[in-house]
Design a protein that fits this description.
Elements (H helix, E strand, L loop, with lengths): L1 E2 L2 E2 H32 L6 H18 L4 H22 L9 H23 L15 E3 L4 E3 H23 L1 H11 L1 H5 L5 H23 L9 H16 L4 H21 L7 H12 L10
Helix pairs in contact: 1-5, 1-8, 1-9, 1-10, 2-3, 2-4, 2-8, 2-9, 3-8, 5-6, 9-10, 9-11
Length: 294
């Protein structure tokens, strides 16, 4: 069976590839949206922290023989703790300044982090095996579904929806949102707003590390693996609406699928289609698809 001259298995393979890429876009843009929406900081270090999650997992599996499943939890926790240090030592001093200061500070952190790992591991790819439980593929009849890629999509969607639920539908999320808008009022209820802000940044970068662990068996692990991806992810956040949690999730998944289909019908445009969509959206709706007009 063919659709517009493309066989169904090829079409479904590109759909799956788009979903996998879209999952990475969704979870990374979600972390950016959490940090910007609640802390008002443009975190350009997100790509470097994504890379840290992948390389820390590689280090744990290679040097200490720690299983992938343990590192899936440990790497985000370690990177999240590193994020807490960043927030306490650096970011807390620039919250009341222009966005440009946060952007420049986190860009500098990116260069430092990537430079440190590159001095140790160079720029060549590091071997990273798929966990034994997820090796192989499942025959769906019309296509072979790689088990690991299916796991990436499911895990990303579950984490994204859980994060959205906590922020938008729970009392903790209400405190977080209120703490960014009127911290003195929230502190009057006995809530430690500075600690809450610190943990929010740590959680946001932990999401980036979680995406790095998921991406490592799919994307070659190098100290520079976050550079190209983070540019696309920023475009996703802008299209969805800066600070919009659900906007980041839906836009990330949707643009991943669009990018995958573009590779089938017009491969030359696959690397730019996201940015073309961004320009069109900003012309029509400057606040993004799900952003709030001021």
């Amino acid at each position: 069976m063919e659709i517009f001259g493309v066989s169904l298995p090829a079409m479904m393979s590109q759909l799956l590839l788009g979903l996998v890429n879209g999952s990475f876009y969704a979870i990374l843009s979600l972390g950016l949206a959490v940090i910007f929406g609640l802390l008002n900081v443009i975190n350009f270090a997100h790509g470097a922290l994504f890379m840290m999650g992948a390389i820390l997992t590689w280090m744990g599996m290679t040097y200490f023989n720690i299983s992938y499943w343990v590192m899936l939890i440990a790497a985000p926790v370690i990177v999240g703790a590193f994020g807490v240090l960043i927030e306490r030592l650096l970011l807390r001093w620039i919250y009341k300044l222009d966005h440009l200061y946060g952007l420049l500070l986190t860009l500098g952190l990116t260069l430092l982090i990537e430079g440190a790992f590159r001095s140790v591991y160079g720029v060549s790819g590091l071997g990273y095996d798929t966990p034994d439980q997820l090796v192989g593929a499942t025959n769906l009849g019309f296509m072979m579904l790689p088990n690991y890629r299916a796991w990436v999509v499911v895990a990303s969607v579950v984490v994204c929806i859980a994060t959205w639920f906590v922020i938008e539908k729970t009392r903790l999320g209400a405190y977080l949102r209120a703490g960014t808008e009127n911290p003195r009022l929230v502190e009057a209820f006995g809530i430690n707003v500075p600690l809450m802000v610190t943990l929010t940044y740590g959680f946001g970068v932990a999401l980036a590390a979680f995406a790095g662990v998921l991406a490592a068996p799919v994307i070659q692990v190098t100290p520079l693996m976050g550079q190209n991806l983070i540019i696309v992810v920023f475009a996703v956040v802008v299209i969805g609406g800066m600070g919009s949690i659900m906007g980041s999730i839906l836009t990330g998944l949707g643009l991943g699928i669009i990018e995958g289909f573009t590779k089938v019908f017009y491969p030359e445009a696959s690397s730019t289609v996201v940015f073309v969509i961004m320009v069109i959206v900003l012309l029509i709706r400057p606040a993004g698809l799900f952003g709030k007009e001021k």
